[in-house]
Amino acid sequence: MRSKDWKPKETARILVIGEDPNVQWSDQLPEYPLFADYYFRKVPYDHGERSRYMEAKNLFDMIKTLTDNRYFVTDVYITHLCNESLPHAPKGKRTLIPENLALRGVDHIRWILEQNPEIDLILACSMQTNYWLQKTGLVPADEAFLKGAEPRRTGIQSYLPYYQPVDGKAFKDICGKFTHLTDTPAVRVLPLLPVRDFPLTDRNLEQYGDVYQAVQESFK
What is the pLDDT of residues 55-70, one digit of tens each? Predict the structure, then answer.
């Protein structure tokens, strides 16, 4: 099973690229990445269904907040770097996206951009997502970030492979800083934390609050 892209009915102007191919507590992939379809339903009463609705709501709230309402919910195209089911990571670890599937995901992103030429902003959510976008050349490489974000051998070779970067602090240097597509500089790319980390709280708020505020200010 694969998750299907969430596509606007008309013109896409912004692309969100998520990371996690699996819901950690389930073997079943969501029908759409980040449960985007739940945002357009009635607010559910069931606890599990409501948590999915809140994930979708946080996604669209993040887009509206960070871009100062520059984009409407009807402008948003959503995909994952990997839309296929993968083995769960050990508890407390992130799912590792193997290189062959990451390459396939980047090819799919190129296709999305070809089919939606009015997209002018990409929100690339998570360290691993940004690692593969740079590693494959879709986005210009920051060599220091690539070195720090490279998956550790111990994670790759685990009986349940998981993603653990060489330097967990490397993402701080690129998060919230605009870059662009290598072949299309007019399309900006914004590295962000995973969508589930929005709104920022606790340690993330302390470390990234000013960064996210600066992004919002840049759209005013």
Answer: 999 999 999 999 999 9
Taking the C-alpha atoms of residue 121 and residue 187, their distance in angstroms, rounded to an integer, is 6
In one-letter notation, the amino acid at residue 8 is P
CA distance 131 to 149: 6
Nearest of 38, 39, 43, 1 to residue 22 by alpha carbon: 1
pLDDT at 14 over 90: yes
Prediction pTM value:
0.93
pLDDT tens digits along 161-193: 889 999 999 999 999 999 999 999 999 999 999
Angle at the Cα of 54 from the Cα atoms of 50 and 60, rounded to 5 degrees: 145
Strands (DSSP E) found in 53-181: 76-80, 94-95, 121-125, 162-163, 179-180
